[in-house]
């Protein structure tokens, strides 16, 4: 399956400091659930990626990752 987030399995989020996300659904009919696939490219070039039920949750996870990353420097 081709997505705007990946090309040949590689993230297309290449510009440092940017985010991209895409909505997808799992399940069948009444069991369908909405999720966000989220990528963020840090200014140092490292990629953060996650899946969560809301964009807010994705950004919260990114912020936790950024906080941990900053505390190790």
* Strand count: 5
Continuous helix count = 1
End-to-end separation in angstroms reads 38 Å
Main structural class: alpha+beta
Basic shape: flat
Main sheet?
Answer: 3 strands, antiparallel
H/E element sequence: EEEEEH
In a nutshell, what does this entry contain?
The protein has 73 residues and is an alpha+beta fold. Helix content is 23%, strand content 38%. The radius of gyration is 14 Å and the shape is flat.
Descriptive account of the structure:
The protein is α+β, with helices and mostly antiparallel strands. It is 23% helix and 38% strand. The chain is built from 1 helix and 5 strands; from the N terminus they run βββββα. The strands form 2 sheets. Strands 3-4-5 form a 3-stranded antiparallel beta sheet, with helices on one face. Strands 1-2 form a two-stranded antiparallel ribbon. The longest helix has 17 residues. It is flat and about 45 Å long.
